[in-house]
Amino acid sequence: ERHDLAALAREAAGQRVGLGAFNVIQLEHATALVRAAEAAGRPVVLQISQNAVRYHGALEPVLAATLAVARAATVPVVVHLDHAEDTDLVRRAVELGVHSVMYDGSHLDYDTNVATTAEMVAHCHAAGVVVEAELGEVGGKDGVHAPGARTDPDEAAAFVEATGVDLLAVAVGSSHAMTTRDAVLDTELVAALAARLTVPLVLHGSSGVSDEGMLAAIEAGMTKINVSTHLNQVMTAAVREVLVQEKPPVDPRKWLAPGRQAVEDEATRLLRLYSRGRAG
Ligand code: G3H
Ligand code: ZN
């Protein structure tokens, strides 16, 4: 099944390889990321965050375009709604044919997170849509880094049991929106969570993790690897290089194309790194 995030993540977890999940802001990202997945011979997850939906002012145009790019791919491409805190947005995405969603109730107290996540799981599963949830808040979304947050394995097992989620995002030392790659992951906790849970683990804020740190985390049992900021840095650097020229181009394609190429190249490298030749 090409669009089943749960099956792709279970397969990756079984092989101890990572499944790359990268954020789409505009059409160029979707194109670049699918080209990267095809070059690496790996599946990929294209994620549209609630923040990106807010930027566009609506879900449908960006989701429809991303779904069309995914359909034309020669490798499995999952189109995923990322960090949805708005339950109406989850329902709308399901109506519009999204393949999977992350319902993010990590900011809620435990009981409310369980209740709302379970409600989203019932709704999504009825439509064949896979659900990721988060327990133990990975910080940094508000610019405040809190790498000290940790997910407790026993609480995580109870959460998965009570909600029926397909994947679980956990707090193990990463933080969102890091522009340096020096986060220190608690690989012992990753291993403990992987041993305790029946569902694949998701790492948010992966931009702050070095290549070596990521390989160790994947070896310990981390599976879905969410990267956004790092690829944004790579894209913006490539665009900047063009625009600082003495006579910068006027046609946006002249700076968008190098930006798109830079995302494709780095995403290809990351997808190969995550599988280290074990798959694909
Ligand atoms: O959900 C998206 C990821 O957690 C991205 O985080 O921008 O820090 O790589 P990042
Ligand atoms: Zn995230």
Automatic annotation (TrEMBL):
Active-site residues annotated for this sequence: D82
Binding site for Zn(2+) 2: D104, E134
Highest taxon in the source lineage: Bacteria
Pfam families (UniProt xref): F_bP_aldolase
Binding site residues for Zn(2+) 1: H83, H176, H204
Signal peptide: none
A biological-process GO annotation: carbohydrate metabolic process
UniProtKB keywords: Metal-binding, Zinc
One example GO MF annotation: aldehyde-lyase activity
NCBIfam families found in the cross-reference section: cbbA
Protein name as it appears in the record: Fructose-bisphosphate aldolase
UniProt source species: Auraticoccus monumenti
